[in-house]
Structures are given as C-alpha cells and as structure tokens.
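User: I've been trying to design a sequence by hand for this structure and keep getting stuck. Would you show me what you'd pick, starting by listing the structure so we're on the same page?

Assistant: Good idea, let's start from the same input. This is the structure you sent:
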C-alpha cells in the first residue's frame, strides 16, 4: 500500500514538474507574430509584453527539479517512517495524504512566488530556487540515510 501511494505521489510530482515548462512554452511569441498582430507600432518595452515573455530555461529547469525533489522528499520520508524513523517536522507528522497535499501546496506556492519574483529580478528568482533545490536535496539525502537504517 505504501509503495502504491508513493508511486502515485511521485507520478503527480513529475506531472507538476512538467507543468511550468509547458505553461512557459505557451507564452513564447515570435517577433513576426507580434508584428502581425499589432496594427499600430508598439514599443518593444510595452508593459503588456513583460507578462508574456518566457521565464527562461534555467528557471523552468529549477522549478521542475524542485518539484521532483519535493516528490522524492515525500517518498523518502514515507520509506523512512515505515522503517522506524520519526518525523521531526510537526506539520508533516500526519497521514500520508495530508503530507502530500501540504507538499503540493508548498510547491505551488513556491512556483507562483518565484514567478512573481522573476518579473522583477530573474537573477534573484534563480538564486532563490537554486538555494531551495540545494536545501531540499540535502533533506532528501538525510531521509535516504535514515531509510537505510
């Protein structure tokens, strides 16, 4: 039962990891398309164009890897807890379904927060996601170590 739940959770995080990449590709507008649609001449730095510009491959990869790391964190936590380890985080010390919902909500909130941050500073958003990926990766490694015991 735990393996089936973990596989379902992992698959849902993989789908969530692909969502930012797919949504970013919808907003790519070539210069000929913009020129064909815009009857009057629009300046290149028009405010409405900033929201439609893609976020960049680096940020999309960081979002995807963060989603995968969140899934691995949940999976490794479930395995470690089934082998006798205890959960230190009181918010995650609940059932597997509630933990999965909390992880998904946290991942979504992180995605939207960094997306909003990227509008003002792409470098800041990339740095923040890199740090979050590093911290989450360290948590996954710790969980894996505890699961082997």
């Amino acid at each position: 039962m735990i393996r089936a739940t973990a596989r379902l959770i992992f698959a849902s995080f993989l789908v969530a990891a692909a969502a930012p990449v797919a949504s970013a590709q919808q907003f790519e507008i070539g210069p000929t398309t913009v020129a064909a649609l815009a009857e009057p001449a629009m300046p290149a730095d028009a405010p409405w164009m900033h929201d439609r510009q893609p976020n960049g491959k680096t940020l999309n990869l960081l979002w995807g890897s963060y989603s995968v790391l969140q899934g691995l964190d949940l999976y490794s936590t479930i395995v470690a807890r089934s082998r006798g380890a205890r959960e230190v985080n009181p918010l995650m010390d609940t059932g597997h379904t509630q933990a999965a919902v909390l992880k998904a909500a946290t991942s979504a909130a992180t995605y939207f927060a960094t997306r909003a941050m990227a509008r003002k500073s792409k470098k800041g958003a990339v740095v923040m996601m890199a740090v979050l990926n590093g911290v989450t990766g360290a948590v996954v490694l710790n969980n894996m170590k505890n699961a082997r015991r």
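That's my pick for every position. To get oriented when you compare it with your attempt: The first helix runs from residue 2 to 26. Helices lie at 2-26, 31-37, 47-50, 57-82, 96-120, 122-148.
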